[in-house]
Design goal:
Blueprint: E1 7-10, E2 13-16, H1 18-21, H2 29-32, E3 38-39, H3 41-46, H4 51-58, E4 61-63, H5 96-100, H6 114-118, H7 130-149, H8 155-181, H9 190-205, H10 217-234, H11 237-263, H12 271-284, H13 297-302
Parallel strand pairs: 1-3
Antiparallel strand pairs: 1-2, 2-4
Binding site for Zn(2+): 177, 182, 200, 203-204, 258, 262, 279, 282-283
Transmembrane segments: 115-139, 151-172, 213-233, 239-257
Binding site for heme: 25, 49
């Protein structure tokens, strides 16, 4: 159908970018629609598109022209996308780091075993399972705080403890994303390649897959339990539960916000609008910066913030 096509020409080849444009293009559809049925070669080079942009464009080539130009080595030919990724990606070696940071709009199978594969898929609403858990922690934590402190006006200190937990989460979010998820593996270490791939590489390779954004509940609950037990060393019981409530609240807000940034269209001049642009830059241009997702506060503190360019017109996703 006509409304399902948007053709552009680049270096003699023709591309139908409709499916990518209407869902995922970081620049939005209003920037691209004026180039329908036109040659975008000079425009893309003038606007200094990233290597990722050219990589994604190749996925939508429909007609190969007679330009005779040789394409760059396609790293995807080193992987059989019809087979599970486990058992393949370590063969990439030193090329893994480049491969994993070149996103594709494809479906990926991780395991051949259907049961194991099912555990790698997490719908966005699964994060809501933390809400009743958090309510229980809040009720228990409030009771214990009043019992142990004999507080007569506990509302303000309880709110401050919860807010401290939320703030603590934002710091952990930044720290884990930067120093754990983006710790690049050596091409010689098969184990580290798989650790990186399972922790965060999957999301960077297929950022458009809505079922592989949320961290699976089972490993998340184990990590949360470990952090809670660790907190017992440093914090008294009277405050530990309430800080934990704030921490989990921050985590749930982060996961939902992360999904929103990838798959929704925030309105212009809103916080979500600016953070969607910010996070797009992290995925498609600067994977070495912009580690904050729910906030860019810690990026500014640690000097890893991404400066967003002033737009001549607003982006419409």
């Amino acid at each position: 159908m006509e409304n399902e096509e948007l053709w552009v020409k680049y270096k003699g080849d023709f591309y139908n970018i409709y499916n990518f444009l209407t869902k995922h293009h970081p620049g939005g559809k209003n920037y691209i629609r004026p180039y329908k049925n036109k040659d975008v070669t000079s425009t893309m080079e003038r606007t200094q598109h990233s290597k990722t942009a050219y990589k994604i464009l190749q996925q939508y080539r429909v007609i190969e022209g007679d330009s005779g130009s040789k394409k760059q080595e396609d790293l995807e030919t080193l992987i059989d996308w019809n087979k599970p990724m486990v058992g393949q990606i370590h063969h990439l070696g030193e090329k893994y780091k480049e491969w994993v940071h070149l996103p594709v709009n494809k479906k990926m199978r991780i395991f051949g075993n259907p049961i194991l594969e099912r555990f790698t898929i997490t719908p966005w609403y699964m994060v809501l399972i933390w809400i009743p858990i958090n309510i229980g922690l809040f009720v228990h934590g409030t009771r214990r705080y009043i019992e142990l402190t004999q507080a007569t006006a506990p509302l303000l200190p309880i709110l401050l403890l919860i807010l401290s937990g939320i703030l603590s989460w934002t710091l952990l979010e930044y720290s884990v994303h930067r120093w754990v998820f983006h710790r690049e593996p050596s091409g010689k270490s098969m184990i580290m390649i798989y650790v990186h791939f399972f922790l965060h590489g999957i999301h960077h390779k297929i950022p458009f897959d809505s079922q592989r954004i949320i961290f699976p509940f089972l490993p998340a609950s184990l990590i949360a339990f470990g952090l809670f037990q660790l907190g017992a060393i440093f914090t008294p019981e009277s405050i530990r539960f309430l800080v934990c409530v704030g921490f989990i609240t921050g985590y749930v807000m982060y996961d939902l916000f992360h999904c929103y940034l990838h798959h929704c269209s925030p309105k212009e001049d809103t916080y979500a609008y600016n953070m969607k642009r910010y996070h797009n830059q992290h995925h498609f241009a600067r994977s070495d910066r912009g580690f904050g997702i729910s906030t860019d506060f810690w990026d500014k503190i640690y000097g890893t913030a991404i400066a967003l360019k002033k737009l001549p017109i607003a982006i419409k996703w």
